[in-house]
């Protein structure tokens, strides 16, 4: 069971700022382990961020994303008390969803 | 001081030395702005949050209550100085003297003791690979240390100095801090005994007085240059490497004494862990 994402969402001016820290190894598939074998690629391919049920951000990610990625984005039209959900899907088919409330 | 008085005296009479004085001030301001640039970046990182070390805390919390080792026991009964199982505030009062081991111990050496006595690990297994590789994954010991330290976040540092051995640890730490050795005849004091100094854009805190808290109170931390969370034990090892000294043994009294010296100097300051570092 991976660690839950660390999420915060705040109203700043006329926008909602969302900050998410995801726990993920983000292995590129180019690195070798101490035993000399290649560590298989394991990285997030898509991230879907929703405000209540409305999709506000979709990301297509590749191997250039760092380990434990940090994502910050802002969108207009949100308000305090809204539910923000972030879902990632990686190349092994693993997925994780976490939610937070805009404060 | 005398030079400044001279200049002030000259300022009253002549304009040329006054120009020099302004020039001197500008140089100081420039040095400050250089370190501020580096500090502003770290400040931004800390305000933005999202410290990857948060995951080490999560992992450490799980490991703390997980049954491990030959005795299949958790660390929940580990006495970190405030009684068995008390984690909250324990790190703010470490290193301290422990009657059961008869030694002054810091966080990691105490955790090693608990892993040996409670979980039945051998000394060799308990402190095996204590430090993660750069950009690697933290060791179980590091994760537990990060968790325990975070439980004292926001608390005041209050490292006891009641026992004779605690005082001896401080004195030995001080001696070691000023001790010059190695091929470059370096001491810790070479870089950290004066205020307002810097290396490149990194400010060098003066660790011989209360200013020590600038550094001490922000560990354990996530140094960006390392790509993995680090504790004070690692920082001592890195400092001695930078001095071209041989690497000290993990949880050796030399390391603990240095931590005691800086920690006691920082007494009264508020802990902020984990933080971002260069």
**If you average the pLDDT of chain B, what whole number results?**
84
Oligomer: heterodimer
What is the general shape of chain B?
globular
Please write the string of helix (H) and strand (E) elements of chain B.
Answer: HHHEEHHHHHEEHEHHE
Kindly give the count of domains of chain A. 1
Our count of helices of chain B gives 11
| Ends apart, CA distance between termini of chain B | 34 Å
**Biggest sheet, spatial arrangement of strands of chain A:** 4-3-6-7
Mean residue pLDDT of chain A: 92
**What's the helical proportion of residues of chain A?**
under 10%
Helix/strand-derived category of chain A reads mainly beta
Identify the biggest protein-protein contact and residues per side: A-B, 12 and 11 residues
CATH architecture of chain A: Sandwich
Largest sheet of chain A: 4 strands, antiparallel
Beta-strand proportion of chain B: 5-15%
Q: What is the gyration radius of chain B calculated from CA atoms?
A: 21 Å
Order of helices and strands of chain A: EEEEEEE
- Give the C-alpha Rg of chain A: 15 Å
Shape of chain A: elongated
Uncertain runs of chain A are: none
- CATH 4th-level superfamily of chain A: Immunoglobulins
Note down, in words, how this protein is organized.
The complex is a heterodimer of chains A (103) and B (278). By secondary structure, chain A is mainly beta. Chain A has a single domain (6-101), classed as Immunoglobulins (Immunoglobulin-like). Chain A contains no helices and seven strands. Chain A has strands at 6-12, 15-21, 44-51, 54-60, 70-76, 83-90, 95-101. In chain A, strands 4-3-6-7 form a four-stranded antiparallel β-sheet, with no helix packed on it. Chain B is mainly alpha-helical and 278 residues long. Chain B has eleven helices and six strands. Chain B has helices at 2-13, 16-48, 53-65, 107-117, 123-126, 140-150, 164-178, 188-192, 213-216, 232-242, 253-265, and strands at 96-98, 103-105, 197-199, 202-204, 221-223, 275-277. In chain B, β3 (197-199) and β4 (202-204) form a beta hairpin. In chain B, α1 (2-13) packs across α2, α3 crosses α6 (140-150) and α7 (164-178) crosses α11 (253-265). The longest helix of chain B is centred in the first third of the chain and has 33 residues, at 16-48. Chain B is globular. The A-B interface holds A 3-4, 6, 8, 19-21, 23, 67-68, 70, 72 and B 48-52, 54-55, 58-59, 135, 227.
